[in-house]
């Protein structure tokens, strides 16, 4: 194998595929990045068997071939190369790959390409396209609500439900639920899958094109792939039945409160300085006389209390929540004002932006003895 | 105790004294910050018995008094307060301190001030003044050369040697030595003390005044204090005899090499990507034919090699070093060029800036089998 390419493109490609290199690989070969040079293209691949990433870049290929390099050292070395171009030549006898850039020269030990589980394109049963900015918005507004508890896999992923032109993404850890709706331009069909949150987080990080472009999504039994620019990402899906989240959303509320997002958010952050050190991180909200008093009490530290103006339509109410579940949603709301809607101190409440009917967040209160 | 002050000044003072609050306090009271209000000043104090810091700020004191608060929560709370001013009132019966700022109110549990080991000014045997920018330069150019090995305390500190108008700071871990000289305006006397590197690092972080100003240094048996602006820092000294470092500095060298600092530094950093994962982090320097070839070889990863132009006066030479000891000094040299001076592959070498006779760095080579 012998090729040359720009350092910038190689660094970009290595940074992308590196996300699929496991820190604790099941087999040594999975700690590596696979390189394949042919037809004036270099293909880089990495996989941990859950997530696989392919990234292609242009190169001047003098001799085709494939090789596997330790991902960690390859990334470190490529990033620090001094020149604008990089020349790479393999030495089969010494099992090394020579990387030359200006006056710097590295000979990295290589692994045989034949041992690498080369990624294959999915044999898709359903395919559709979605704008990357829309897909990123679906992820960003829901993925934080997933559970981290691997014992219940369904809650570690987001439901993606496509029904003709309607796309819904939903996530829940059973204590809170986040649902975001968007629309597709042209697709007729039905998809209902659960995508691991880890993959969605990586996708949101990789999809940073300045100009909105299309992502092609292919689904097959148990797998999904995402294709955009020069990147191909393949992932397993989570098996099982996502809970019927629509049943959790209360049809109406007895009390509807309007709050300024930033004011309420800053006050909740301050009061939770006192609550967050305890396991339950409980804050109490007292809605009364056109204000909400946010308070917390930690016997080891002290008390905090802050009042914020509120427009209250309905009954006064005293209710307690896990502060993190409140701050998480407030960080994801861009509107100046929010609606906080409640029924009783023990029934699910809703927090949503004033100007966006497509975003729903349901939060279960905490029962307190006070 | 009752007072009000600006949030900005209070945050500044808490951030400074916080550095003396131990994470693993010997006694619960040492996890706290002591506050004393009188004469329209607030004094904040913290100590871990090795390092003590006092910071004073102006305040509108309505009722004098003293109290101790948990350092960690006090810092978190003060930083996030919403208003420009802060009002603080203690409640003796409840053992709490009420902090009010705009609509936010915190009641933090307090500890009795009587239990706090209040810091006392040193009874100095010698005192002198030094410009903070000069003192910071002395620290920055030497403290990195200290050892972290607490088993040999002398090498965990910097020697400060004042002899009339000459000030020298020196540090060594026995494998390398860094010495920086400066001059005092008016002082006649002699001081020879070893200051813990931890305190010097904290000092360098705290002394960030935009306009150069004087620091007053007071020494007493076993202790040192630093006074500047509204800050008073007191520390123990390290006891023992600092090695006679001047004997380590070779009087002359057989080979003198001139190198471009940035070029050499970048090449050493790249080559050490390969060496740094092994325990010894060894790079080899081959000075020959107006260039230096920097190389390293790690049987588990591969080889790296890079050549940089050099002006060599004297014999060609092959010599190996711990790469960290080379990069550490290069980071602290501001000059465009350095002198690298050598005798034999096994005798100490010198690296110094071309235009600064007051800075000396001696490094012991590594014996290699190759």
Automatic annotation (TrEMBL), chains A, B:
CDD domains xrefs: beta_clamp (cd00140)
Superkingdom of origin organism: Bacteria
Domain DNA polymerase III beta sliding clamp central residues, every copy: 130-244
Location relative to the cell: Cytoplasm
Keyword field contains DNA-binding: yes
GO BP field: DNA strand elongation involved in DNA replication
Chief place where the protein resides: cytoplasm
One Pfam family matching this protein: DNA_pol3_beta_2
Domain called DNA polymerase III beta sliding clamp C-terminal: residue spans: 247-367
Gene Ontology MF term list: 3'-5' exonuclease activity; DNA binding; DNA-directed DNA polymerase activity
GO cellular component term, pick one: DNA polymerase III complex
Record-linked InterPro entries: DNA_clamp_sf, DNA_polIII_beta, DNA_polIII_beta_C, DNA_polIII_beta_cen, DNA_polIII_beta_N
Record key words, sorted: Cytoplasm, DNA replication, DNA-binding, DNA-directed DNA polymerase, Nucleotidyltransferase, Transferase
Domain DNA polymerase III beta sliding clamp N-terminal: 1-119
Described function: Confers DNA tethering and processivity to DNA polymerases and other proteins. Acts as a clamp, forming a ring around DNA (a reaction catalyzed by the clamp-loading complex) which diffuses in an ATP-independent manner freely and bidirectionally along dsDNA. Initially characterized for its ability to contact the catalytic subunit of DNA polymerase III (Pol III), a complex, multichain enzyme responsible for most of the replicative synthesis in bacteria; Pol III exhibits 3'-5' exonuclease proofreading activity.
Family (UniProt): Belongs to the beta sliding clamp family.
Self-association state and partner proteins as the record states: Forms a ring-shaped head-to-tail homodimer around DNA.
Protein name per Swiss-Prot or TrEMBL: Beta sliding clamp
């Amino acid at each position: 194998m012998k090729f040359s390419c720009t350092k910038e493109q190689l660094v970009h490609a290595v940074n992308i595929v590196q996300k699929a290199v496991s820190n604790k690989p099941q087999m040594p070969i999975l700690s590596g990045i696979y390189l394949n040079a042919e037809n004036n293209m270099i293909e880089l691949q990495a996989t941990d068997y859950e997530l696989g990433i392919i990234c292609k870049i242009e190169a001047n290929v003098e001799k085709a071939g494939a090789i596997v390099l330790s991902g960690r050292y390859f990334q470190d070395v490529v990033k620090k190369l001094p020149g604008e171009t990089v020349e790479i030549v393999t030495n089969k006898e010494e099992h090394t790959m020579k990387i030359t850039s200006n006056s710097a020269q590295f000979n990295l030990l290589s692994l045989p390409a034949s041992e690498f589980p080369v990624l294959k394109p999915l044999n898709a049963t359903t395919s559709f396209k979605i704008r990357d900015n829309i897909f990123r918005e679906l992820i960003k507004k829901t993925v934080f609500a997933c559970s981290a508890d691997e014992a219940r896999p369904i809650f570690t992923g987001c439901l993606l439900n496509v029904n003709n032109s309607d796309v819904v993404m939903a996530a829940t850890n059973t204590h809170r639920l986040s649902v975001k709706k968007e629309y597709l331009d042209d697709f007729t069909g039905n998809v209902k899958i659960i995508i691991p949150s880890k993959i969605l987080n990586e996708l949101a990080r990789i999809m940073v094109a300045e100009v909105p472009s299309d992502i092609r999504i292919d689904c097959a039994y148990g797998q999904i792939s995402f294709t955009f620019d020069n990147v191909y990402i393949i992932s397993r899906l989570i098996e099982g039945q996502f809970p019927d989240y629509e049943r959790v959303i209360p049809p109406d509320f007895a009390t509807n409160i309007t709050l300024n997002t930033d004011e309420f958010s800053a006050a909740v952050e301050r009061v939770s300085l006192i609550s967050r050190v305890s396991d339950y991180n409980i804050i109490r909200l007292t809605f009364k006389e056109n204000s909400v008093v946010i308070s917390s009490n930690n016997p080891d530290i002290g008390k905090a209390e802050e009042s914020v103006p509120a427009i209250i339509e309905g009954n006064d109410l005293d209710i307690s929540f896990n502060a993190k579940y409140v701050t998480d949603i407030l960080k994801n709301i861009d509107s100046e004002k929010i609606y906080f809607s409640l029924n009783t101190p023990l029934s699910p409440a809703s927090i949503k932006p004033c100007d966006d009917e497509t975003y729903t967040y349901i939060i279960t209160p905490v029962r307190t003895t006070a």
